[in-house]
Design brief:
- The chain is an alpha/beta fold.
- It contains four helices and nine strands, in the order H-E-E-H-E-E-E-E-E-E-H-E-H.
- The protein has a five-stranded mixed beta sheet. Strands 4-5 form a two-stranded antiparallel sheet.
Length: 213
C-alpha cells in the first residue's frame, strides 16, 4: 500500500529543498496527506506523475475547503507569582490562527494500481491573496474541477487555461460555498419560492399580503 509517508520520502530524496510537509489525520481512516508549497507545487506534481515508482497518473477529484480565522484557547503553565515563586497552576491563553482557502487533490496510479495519495495547497489568506498554481498542465482532469472551486470558493488558479465561473452566472457576486457567505433574501432565479425562502422574498414585493407565484 502506498502511503503519504513513502511519497514524502521519495519527494525529499529526488527533489531536495522542495517545501512539502506531512499532515497527519487522527481519524480511524488515518489518511494522511501532503501539504505542498505553492511555489513548488507544479514541479512536485510532475514528479508524482512521472516517477516510475509512483506514476500517479490519474487525478480523480479536486475539492475546496474554506477555513476562516479560528480562535484557539490553550492551557499553559501560569506565570510565576509576584514574589518570583514557581507557578503551580495553569492559565488559558487565546490566540488566533489566520484563515485560508485550500484545494485538495486525490491521486491514483492506474498503471501501478495504488492510491489514493492526497495532496493539498493553501492560499496565504482568504481575501487579498487567494492565488494557487493550476495543476491542469499535469492532470487534464483538474480543469473543470479547478473552475468549480474558483466559482464556489474564490481560489484563483494561476496558469489555468480557461478560468471562469462554471455553475454560477457571470454576474453572480461572491462565492456560495464560503462559510461566511450570506444568501440573498430574494432569489431572482427561484421559480417557486417556498418556506423560509418565501418569507424572505416577500419583503421585496409590494404589499404585505401580496401573493407570490
Amino acid at each position: 500500500m502506498l502511503t503519504a509517508e513513502h511519497v514524502l520520502q521519495r519527494l525529499l530524496e529526488a527533489l531536495p529543498g522542495v517545501q512539502v510537509r506531512l499532515l497527519t489525520n487522527g481519524s480511524p481512516s488515518g489518511q494522511h496527506s501532503l501539504l505542498l508549497d505553492r511555489e513548488d507545487a507544479v514541479r512536485i506534481a510532475r514528479f508524482l506523475r512521472d516517477d516510475p515508482d509512483l506514476r500517479l497518473d490519474y487525478l480523480s477529484n479536486v475539492t475546496g475547503i474554506d477555513q476562516p480565522v479560528r480562535t484557539i484557547q490553550e492551557k499553559r503553565p501560569a506565570a510565576p507569582g509576584t514574589e518570583g515563586g514557581e507557578s503551580t497552576g495553569t492559565e488559558t491563553v487565546t490566540r488566533e490562527e489566520p484563515g485560508y482557502l485550500e484545494a485538495v487533490y486525490h491521486l491514483y496510479s492506474i498503471a501501478l494500481r495504488h492510491g489514493p495519495v492526497v495532496v493539498r495547497m493553501r492560499t496565504a489568506d482568504r481575501d487579498s491573496d487567494t492565488h494557487l498554481p493550476s495543476l491542469t498542465s499535469v492532470w487534464k482532469s483538474a480543469e473543470f474541477q479547478e473552475r468549480e472551486i474558483f466559482d464556489l470558493y474564490g481560489i484563483r488558479f494561476d496558469g489555468h487555461p480557461d478560468l471562469r465561473r462554471l455553475l454560477m452566472w457571470d454576474e453572480f457576486e461572491g462565492h456560495p460555498m464560503r462559510k461566511d457567505y450570506v444568501a440573498p433574501d430574494d432569489y431572482e432565479y427561484e421559480p417557486t419560492p417556498h418556506d423560509a425562502v418565501h418569507e424572505r422574498a416577500r419583503a421585496h414585493y409590494p404589499g404585505p399580503e401580496t401573493p407570490l407565484p
